Amino acid sequence: MSAIRGAIIAAGRGERLRAGAAGLPKPLVEIGGEVLLARQARLLIEAGACAPVAVVNTETARTIAQRKLALPAQLDLVVRDTPSSMESLFALGERIATGRFLLVTVDTVVAPPEFIRFAQIASNLTDPARKQALDGALAVTRWRGDRGALFATVSSDGLITRLAGDEGQLVTAGLYLFSTRIFSFATEARAARLDALRRFLALLLDEGFRLGAIEVSGAIDIDEPADLDAARSAVRSLG
């Protein structure tokens, strides 16, 4: 999997989390002895992705410099105050060469074995040498009552047929593997005034992209202080 690039969306401000995170930007909140940004970069590398790149906003970049925070040497930072998660993705696209990339949002906490298992399965399903290779893969997990979760409808053959805000059993888990071909739809997405990654993913489905669903267990999306407590507890239980 050495030809697959690692990427992290970490440009959001995380306002809902700040009350429980000493006012820190979300990427710099610590769990298990490391900040989220460093954890995601490390897991990408352990999963076989090369030269991870992360998009962060100016506040996060400034705080990293002020606190002299140590990040993995391989991590490349793009500093950009993007207006949406979709535009954060497109900013990453400027640094990723043609091919495939393993993408994670900074606030997704997945146990390392599950992270690596997703990467391996997704890499196989999207391998260009594979007959009828998929265009991408999304991690999904059982809904645990999160507000604002993106529900995924999955067919019997493991393909995602719909992404929407309706209730269901499975929700997206902030971990993806895509071909850089998705960036060819940036102009169309902007013309449609899409304002979030989830809406861009729905556009890809509308365009005929075949996206596989890979279920991971125990994924936690950190949006609020209670999520942070749950993530820290989960990481402690892993030892």
CATH superfamily: Spore Coat Polysaccharide Biosynthesis Protein SpsA, Chain A
Structural Rg? 17 Å
Report the helical percentage: 25-40%
How far the N terminus sits from the C terminus, by CA atoms, comes to 27 Å
For the record, the CATH architecture stands as: Alpha-Beta Complex
* CATH third-tier fold name: Spore Coat Polysaccharide Biosynthesis Protein SpsA, Chain A
Low-confidence blocks of residues: none
Give a verbal description of the structure:
The protein is of the alpha/beta class and 239 residues long. It has a single domain, classed as Spore Coat Polysaccharide Biosynthesis Protein SpsA, Chain A. The strands form four sheets. Strands 5-4-1-6-11-8-12 form a seven-stranded mixed beta sheet, sandwiched between helices. Strands 2-3 form a two-stranded antiparallel sheet. Helix 3 crosses helix 6. The longest helix is centred in the middle third of the chain and has 14 residues. It is globular, with a radius of gyration of 17 Å. The model has no long low-confidence stretch (mean pLDDT 92).
Task: Please write out the topology.
Elements: E1 5-10, E2 30-31, E3 34-35, H1 36-46, E4 50-56, H2 58-67, E5 76-79, H3 85-93, E6 100-105, E7 108-109, H4 112-125, E8 136-142, E9 151-154, E10 160-164, E11 170-179, H5 186-191, H6 197-206, E12 211-215, E13 220-221, H7 225-237
Parallel strand pairs: 1-4, 1-6, 4-5, 8-12
Antiparallel strand pairs: 2-3, 6-11, 7-13, 8-11, 9-10
Helix pairs in contact: 3-6
Keywords:
239 residues, Spore Coat Polysaccharide Biosynthesis Protein SpsA, Chain A, two-stranded antiparallel sheet
